[in-house]
TrEMBL record:
Pfam families attached to this UniProt entry: Acetyltransf_1
Domain named N-acetyltransferase: residues: 22-163
Domain of life: Bacteria
Upper taxonomic lineage: Bacteria, Pseudomonadati, Bacteroidota, Sphingobacteriia, Sphingobacteriales
Protein name, per record: N-acetyltransferase domain-containing protein
Length: 166
């Protein structure tokens, strides 16, 4: 991972609470609908993150800019022998982009994964999302091939070996 500032006074990363549900849903729906179509898996996790993410051993983090939710990221527990968690539903609202919020969320979600014993993170994306793909590489993710995906929009899959990080 490249060294980069991992905190700012006006941005804090907090654990998801129900009061952030509308923001979690809206921030994700915005980017998905801008570039793709919402899919059933999106509706499941965005409509009911408690059932589809948290109750299954996952985590959700929320980035607050001056106490307003502007970014989100989830760790979804996987039923896979190779990958412990999927880093998913990472999004930053348009008005907050360019402020390193994605970087801060990525660092914090990786720290969270390590703290709960994860060894390997997985993610799915699409190469038209160039800033996101660049961020994932900066965080240390590597491209992998031939994993099953539930998303039509997915054309790149990546993994991060947490044991290799400092």
């Amino acid at each position: 991972m490249e060294e980069e500032k991992t905190e700012r006074k006006d941005i804090i990363i907090v654990a998801y609470e129900m009061k952030y549900h509308a923001a979690f849903k809206a921030i994700n729906e915005e980017w998905i609908s801008t570039h793709f179509q919402m899919e059933q898996e999106d509706y499941n996790s965005l409509e009911n993150p408690q059932e589809f993410i948290l109750n299954r051993g996952g985590k959700i983090l929320v980035a607050l800019l001056n106490n307003k939710p502007v970014g989100v990221c989830a760790l979804i527990k996987m039923k896979d022998s190779e990958y412990d968690f999927e880093m998913a539903k990472m999004a930053v609202s348009p008005e907050a982009r360019g402020k390193k919020i994605g970087w801060l969320l990525g660092i914090k979600i990786i720290e969270t994964a390590k703290a709960i014993g994860a060894k390997t993170l997985y993610l799915e994306s699409n190469t038209i999302l160039k800033p996101a793909i660049s961020l994932y590489y900066k965080l240390g993710f590597e491209k992998i091939v031939e994993q099953h995906t539930a998303y039509k929009r997915c054309n790149i899959q990546m993994k991060l070996e947490l044991n290799n990080l400092k």
